[in-house]
Amino acid sequence: MEYVNAFWVGGAICAVCQVFIDKTKLTPARILVSLVVIGVFLQAIGVYQPLVDYAGAGATVPLLGFGYSLAKGVAKAVAESGLLGVFTGGVTGAAGGIAAAIVFGCLFALLAKPKSKS
Fold first, then answer.
1. Which chain regions cross the lipid bilayer (predicted)?
2. Where is 2: in which H helix or E strand?
């Protein structure tokens, strides 16, 4: 059942975003930034953690989950380091995802053979 919950929650998030892309004049970049900000806000008010507990990767993989991990990292760092945690917590909280994106981006850049569209 965990896989089903992850699938439908992640799919619903992606479907809502696709509707915004198709039906509004918002650019995809603004929608993506909005998702990160919404994830931070939902974690700050305590709404996103129960969704993560219910849906697992379906809630943490989309960009809402990136905002969630930033907010969670900041909250942990502030509890441990005080005001300095505001500046360091987001980076340490999302370091695994950021490192994976850099490593896999470089790896695929080396393996891919880009072609001109014209």
1. 6-22, 29-48, 83-112
2. helix 2-23
Q: What is the residue whose two structure tokens read 């896999």?
A: 104
Q: Is residue 116 part of a domain?
A: no
CA 40, distance to chain mean position in Å, is 9
Domain count within the chain: 1
Could you write out the DSSP letters of every residue in 26-38?
--HHHHHHHHHHH
pLDDT in tens, 3-43: 999 999 999 999 999 999 999 999 989 999 999 999 999 99
Domain presence at residue 39: yes
Instruction: Say which residues have a Cβ less than 8 Å from residue 28's Cβ, sequence separation at least 6.
Output: 21
Q: With bands split at pLDDT 50, 70 and 90, how would you rate the model's confidence at 118?
A: low
Number of helical (H) and strand (E) elements in the chain, helices listed first: 7, 0
d(CA 30, CA 25): 10
